[in-house]
Design goal:
By secondary structure, the protein is an alpha+beta fold. The protein has a domain of 85 residues. It contains three helices and five strands. Strands 1-5-4-3-2 form a five-stranded mixed β-sheet, covered by helices on one side. The chain is elongated, with a radius of gyration of 23 Å. The termini are far apart. The model has no long low-confidence stretch (mean pLDDT 82).
Length: 123
């Protein structure tokens, strides 16, 4: 009986501890961005977009646009990117939208992100 009583106190203590920590610190957003590709895509998601460069018909800021698909689920092609270009680095993102493959050249400046070029990749 002593073991079950200790187990009950242990479970009550853990439960109260979890409630107190949640009350003090609240819910936290956890964003895994440790890899180089994840960090670059997080930068593109968090920075302001220069909307004057969204001239291609597949580019806009909706959730089903080419830009959104490239940033969320596309691949960063570091071999074709010039990340150390001054003053703004350039990145190439490969994405697929409606069964068409695209490569997007994006300029990453200090405050904004600009789309420089969109091209259709043919196999």
């Amino acid at each position: 009986m002593a073991f079950l009583r200790r187990l009950l106190f242990y479970i009550i203590g853990i439960g109260l501890g979890v409630l107190i920590v949640t009350a003090f610190f609240g819910e936290r957003d956890f964003d895994y961005a440790y890899g180089p590709e994840s960090r670059v895509k997080k930068l593109f998601r968090t920075k302001a977009i220069d909307s004057t460069t969204l001239v291609h018909e597949a580019l806009d800021l909706s959730k089903d646009s080419l830009y959104y698909q490239a940033v969320v689920s596309g691949d960063v092609l570091f071999s074709q990117s010039d990340t150390r270009k001054e003053p703004c680095g350039e990145y190439v993102l490969a994405a697929e939208l409606k069964q068409v493959d695209y490569e997007i050249l994006i300029e990453n400046c200090a405050d904004t992100v600009r789309v420089l070029q969109v091209k259709v990749v043919k196999d």
